[in-house]
Amino acid sequence: MANQTRRLLWPIAGMVTLGVVLQVFSLLAVVESDAIADRSQQYVAVAADQRTTAEQFENATYLALVGLATANWELLLRQRASAQALAGRFVAANTAMLQGGEARTGDVMVMLRGVEEPEVHEALTSVWALWEETHAAHVRLLRSDNHSLKNNPDVERFRAASSRLTRALGDVSVLLQRRAQVEESRLAAVHGLTPIGLFLLMLGSAAFVIWRILLPFAASTEELARSEAALRLARDELEQRVAERTRELAQTNEALRHSHDGLEVRVKERTQELRDAQRRAVELARQAGMAELATNVLHNVGNVLNSINTSASILDERLRTLRVQPLVKVAELLESHRADLAVFMTEDERGRRLPEYLVKLGQHLSSTRDELLEMTAALHRHVEHIRMIVELQQSYATSSSIVEVTSLQELVEDALRINAAALGRHGVTVERHFAPLPHVMVDKHKLLQIVLNLISNAKYAVNDNPDGERRVTLRVERPTEDRVQVQVRDNGMGIAPELLTKIFQHGFTTRKDGHGFGLHSCAIAARALGGSLVAHSDGPKKGATFTLELPYRPEEQGSA
């Protein structure tokens, strides 16, 4: 019996050992195939993420160019930072795929080992070259002086490079997907062979058991009963775990629903707060612009008052020095010789010279009277200038926030009239280049605020120029069918390149007595008019040009 048991145990042990070895090798093959397939899927996911990153980089570049073209510096800085972050992410992912390392897919970081297939490696190398071309086109586009979105060679070059990069990434994705499909086929083959091996092993074991082992029917029945009981117990336990897990999932789902409802409420509240804050900011900017305009008007009135004060002082001085005393002496002399006036006028030396003296005195008084009349006329002109400034201010103030028919040429002339005293006192030469334009629909008050501020800034910019070389040029033109421009150019101190993006910021100023809100409020008013305000300068001591561009709304369209 013992020998028979040993004879049975050795074959059983051999079959079990063979089964274990086969199971181990099968498991290792499945694990390795799963790992290879997972890595292939990771490469596919990273390639897809790279394509998404390239598209987002292209969108961020366009939005940054829009911010640059519209002087929206907040949009420009935000999109430029986004483009830099996307560029870093793209470079990190491409390096990880070529050489190995960490790469991001969505919000998950994966570790890559680097591709080994020559075809995929060559495709990734070409992607790297296209990326450098696209990034160089991006940098050239944002540094270019041409900020137009249409007919811009830099935009076309960037769009072509980005398109080639996207197509190359698509080719890489196809190669990686093909590679993943091959790995999945291998994994499917391994999975397909494993059941066959197990089946053959089970078939051999069953044959061995049937051939060599004869077990009593009762024992087999008892074993079967025990197996059924164990299966029922396992089934009951599984059903219980499934029910518990279902309840947990239901509770989690309910909690997520409540959290989602609360999040929607908070988002709505925050959105309303942001809208209120924006409305308050616009109102404050409008009030600040009105204050800026009133300050400018008062400044020009003060310049005229200085001229009035000067003329009044000269008039007072001339009246005090008026020679009326000789007339009194001549009258006294004639009164003393009333009885012998004929003898006095013919025989007395003083009498004979008296007519000549009276002629010279009359000429002197006549010239003095002309000077006093000219001074009085100057006083009248200065008072009339103040009245004109006040009337212009009142006419524009009553049209605040009202879009109405306006002549751009007349509005610019009104701004020059308001600044006439200051420009004349500083010896500034004004050149006008006004193209004949039809009337447009615009908010006159906001537009006058911008033009007055630009003329005043230009006057200060040329103060350090020698006399006779202080020049301000104004242009009114229509560069395209749907846009009009008002341009103020000076030959003054100029603007450094690093300050061109800062001069429109709130509180930034280069003048000692400046407050840094003039150009900021002008930029806000320009956006409120649906236009833009940009500055250009070739550098210090080379003058500056401020261009206000507005949408062309003809009178017929506005009235309709």
Automatic annotation (TrEMBL):
Gene Ontology MF, one: ATP binding
Keywords: ATP-binding, Coiled coil, Kinase, Membrane, Nucleotide-binding, Transferase, Transmembrane, Transmembrane helix, Two-component regulatory system
Top-level taxon of origin: Bacteria
GO biological process, one term: phosphorelay signal transduction system
EC number: 2.7.13.3
Transmembrane segments: 12-31, 187-211
Xref: PROSITE patterns: HIS_KIN
Coiled coil: 228-287
InterPro entries in the cross-refs: HATPase_C_sf, HATPase_dom, His_kinase_dom, Sig_transdc_His_kin-like_C
Name by which UniProt lists this protein: histidine kinase
Provenance organism: Cystobacter fuscus (strain ATCC 25194 / DSM 2262 / NBRC 100088 / M29)
